[in-house]
Amino acid sequence: MLRILWDVKGPIHYELLKPKERLNLEMYCQHMDELNEVLEEKMLIPPARRVILQHENAGSYTGKIAELCWQILSHRP
Fold first, then answer.
1. Is 65:53 a contact under the CB 8 Å cutoff?
2. What is the pLDDT of residues 1-47, one digit of tens each?
3. Cys-Cys crosslink for 17: which of 5, 21, 57, 58, Cβ 3.0 to 4.6 Å?
4. pTM score, two decimals?
């Protein structure tokens, strides 16, 4: 599985998961922390002011996003 994150200019971070590896809450939180570090390195202002994330609406994942002070882009299921 390829996990890729991009902004309006193109890809900013990607990772290949191992075959049959599933994304769980612990791994998701670790990936979000890594993404936050990448964003802080590449941006001149703190990412908490700029990040609007579009992703699935799984309730257990939204806590990590709130912790990072990111916004969630609303979309229909």
1. yes
2. 787 777 777 887 788 888 888 878 888 888 888 888 877 777 755 65
3. 21
4. 0.65
CA-based end-to-end distance of the chain: 22
Sign of CA dihedral 23, 25, 26, 29: positive
Give the CA dihedral 38, 41, 46, 48, nearest 10 degrees: 0
Q: Is 3 exposed, middle or buried (0-12, 13-18, 19+ CB in 10 A)?
A: middle
Phi/psi-derived region of residue 55, left when phi > 0, alpha when psi is between -120 and 50, beta in every other case: beta
Question: What is the token pair recorded at 10?
Answer: 């193109």
CA distance 2 to 11: 12
Rg (CA), the chain: 13
Give the count of alpha carbons within 13 A of 51, CB side only: 25
